[in-house]
Amino acid sequence: MKRKQHLNLAGIPPAPSIQDALDDIQMEQKVVPVKRTLAVTALTCFNAIVIGFIAKALVTLIYIVTSICFFGKFSTNEISPSNNHLGWWVIPIPVIGGLIVGIMARYGSKAIRGHGIPEAMEKILTEESKIPPYITFLKPVSAAISIGTGGPFGAEGPIIATGGAFGSLFGQILHTTARERKILLAAGAAAGMTAIFGTPFAAILLAIELLLFEFSPKSFVPVVVACVTGACMHFFLFGTAPTFPMPPVSLPDRNAVIAYAVIGLFIGLASVAVTKSVYLIEDAFEKLLIHWMWWPALGGVAVGLIGYFAPETLGVGYSNITHALSGSLALHVLISLCLLKFISWSIALGSGTSGGTLAPLLTIGSALGCLLGAATQFLVPDAHVSLPLAALVGMAALFAGSSRALLTAIVFALETTMQENTLLPLIAGCVCSYMVSFVLMRGTIMTEKINRRGVITPDSFHPDILQTTLIAEAIDIESEQDKIPMINSDNTVEEVKKWLLHDGAQYGYNTLLIIDNNLLLKGPISKAEIMNAKIEGSEKITTLVDSSKICSVYADNNLQLAVHFLLKTNQDVLPVIDRNANTAIGAISSTNILKTYERYMQRNTHRNKNISTKRNMLKIISKGKQLFASQS
């Protein structure tokens, strides 16, 4: 039998017979994505402008509802419900707001419940980034009612959800792919965050860490443009001052950085407690025998009662963060913001009303950080801890530990305060908080809800092995069962049949490759075609080959192209051609690709020791003895 097993060479590209198809694919891979990326980028820029106005409208609507409910007047100016003089009448206002939100969720859309980011993540992971269009209207209105009636939330969560819904809406109206809709959704959400806080870099990182689950030019460029546009809208509509101004911070010394790291460890424990408490409360509401439509009203009772005794817990409370960062809040106010704000917010959020998590986390974290900073000043005065900086570290560390958006938390704190000397303490505190959260908590405040529904969220980024691995590496298989036989074209049908009945049984593939004496590919052929052939057994095997079925790949292409052609041709193997000699060197199959992935995983998980310290020490001693002997 004149036959040749495939060689252990590399790579996979399509053969000359389909060179036109390959050229089309390569052109599509290079040119079309650039055009599509530019088109998506232009659309995200337009969306960011609209979302900027939506953000302004949402904030204004919150002020209107707040002024009507707590002060009995119509006003679009910034106003805080903590300054009300309603006495006991403050209690039913959050209840009424919760009742309205519950009715909107019951008869409008249940998707308006919660803080929005988990729901956006779920749509990306399970529903191709398709958010119902009416969420674009219902979410901001319900959030404005919830926050305006005293709900202890911020405007950033709802506007992030609204921006994502707006981007998804355009992605569904136009002809887009699922990936492009994801980019539009993430860019809209990031633009919404930037429009509220003026933090473009933090919003970019938020999109990458919590929404995109990837990092590539196709997704990165549109999100960046959307965030820059959102920042311009923030400066135009809200001003250029820092969102959370604080006193100038001097560069901390070594002892201070260590102290802020320790504060971060305690904040990490708090982030675990906060996350678990929110979902314990949510589980408690699930056990109630009344319809979920009434739950936000029940949550409003807690908000109202706590708001009566601690008015500073009502509403957005951005001023509380600013005061905490100034280090000027009294001890009882800090304790109130840590405990009572947390209780009010966690009950309200667990009840399923419409609100966010970012502003409450920032408020609680800044107050807790300030308390820990004061304790550190008392216990370890040589640490030189600054109360404003301790509050800032606490604010960012609680966000980092609860959401595991580490980079977002660090950069967010920098951008909202514009204090560059805070970078090192922020890194120390946030990393420590992140580590504690990672060790003690499986999910996060952003992912726990959808994880319970069976939605798995990625927690790391990996390179695309199909894109970075050449076919040559995939066909380098040692096992005989994994080799794909190449049959010489001089063999007859009868000879090949006999070989198949005996030696050929060890090969698991249904396809054989027919080559001539010069290793030029004549074509693939299946075992069934050979065994069922009705022609004379003395005929050459090439008489059974259909040259129109030839679809091969070059050895220096990547696995991504191989997968494309395996799916397109519905073949179990593809011939592999050497680009220079134009000769067949083997074949690639799905099994080869899977085993390549297995080897990749083993390399990244298998522990081995590459340098032997004992052996190297013996070499050093031996060379030392030789050197000493030569000198003597």
Q: Spans of 5+ residues with little confidence (pLDDT < 50)?
A: 1-32, 477-481
The major β-sheet equals:
4 strands, mixed
Work out the radius of gyration: 32 Å
The share of residues in helices is: 55-70%
Globally, the shape reads elongated
Number of DSSP strands? 7
Decide which structural class fits the backbone: mainly alpha
Mean pLDDT: 82
| Alpha carbon gap, first and last residue | 69 Å
Portion in strands: under 5%
The number of helical elements comes to: 25
For the largest beta sheet, what order do the strands appear in spatially? Answer: 1-2-3-4
Based on the model shown, name its key terms.
single chain; 632 residues; four-stranded mixed sheet; three-stranded mixed sheet; 25 helices
Descriptive notes:
- The protein has 632 residues and is mainly alpha-helical.
- The protein contains 25 helices and seven strands.
- The chain has a four-stranded mixed sheet.
- 49% of the residues are buried.
Write the layout of secondary structure elements.
Blueprint: E1 3-5, H1 19-30, H2 32-71, H3 92-107, H4 117-126, H5 135-148, H6 156-173, H7 178-197, H8 200-212, H9 217-237, H10 254-286, H11 295-309, H12 318-326, H13 331-350, H14 358-379, H15 387-403, H16 406-417, H17 423-440, H18 448-452, H19 465-468, H20 471-474, E2 485-488, H21 493-501, E3 511-515, E4 521-526, H22 527-531, E5 553-554, H23 559-569, E6 573-577, E7 584-589, H24 590-605, H25 613-631
Parallel strand pairs: 2-3, 5-6
Antiparallel strand pairs: 1-2, 3-4, 6-7
Helix pairs in contact: 2-5, 2-6, 2-7, 2-9, 3-5, 3-11, 5-6, 6-7, 7-8, 7-9, 8-9, 8-16, 10-13, 10-14, 10-15, 10-17, 11-13, 12-14, 13-14, 14-15, 15-16, 15-17, 16-17
